[in-house]
Amino acid sequence: MSLQVLWFKRDLRLADHEALCAAAAAGPVLPIFIVEPDYWQLPDTSYRQWEFWRGCVADLATAIRAQGGTLHIAQGDAVAVLETLRQRHGPFTLWAHEETGNGWTYARDRRVGAWARQAGLIWEELPQQGVIRRLPHRDGWARRRDAFAHAPQRPAPDALRPVPGVEPGPIPSARALRITARIDSTCHICP
Hints:
Elements (H helix, E strand, L loop, with lengths): L2 E6 L9 H9 L2 E7 L11 H20 L5 E4 L2 H12 L2 E6 L5 H17 L2 E5 L14 H10 L41
Parallel strand pairs: 1-2, 1-4, 2-3, 4-5
Helix pairs in contact: 3-4
């Protein structure tokens, strides 16, 4: 069976994770979380957000270990990290949720899509919420959103088949990412 790479972006859970369930049904899963330093330098990110994410990623790694797998944590540009995986493990299917983040994450996802097409890889992006991307028109969106919202929740896979030779990698500190605690001088609530 071919390798399935599950890219955890914003949905850091095992239960009710359609992309994870599909990947696990297709073959051995290499779960990955990519720490993107450039993202964490954006003005709409913060030290507090990273510290929250850092704890969530640690919890996710623990949950994946309990299912028999290893969460690979990599740092860098998403395309470069995924290309390194391709060179190390050969062709794979990339699974992820459609992310509804900001303009930076949208542009990043477009670059990843272009890279996957050029590399001859399949990238399966599955909806994670009622937002439906790439509609040719507005007709019927509410029906599709409602169907998504009323679909039954998916349980976590019973087990994850591990990928040999995958190391977890460290979760970097805020200091390592050059994220500093900022005081917002525009706060009108605080004295």
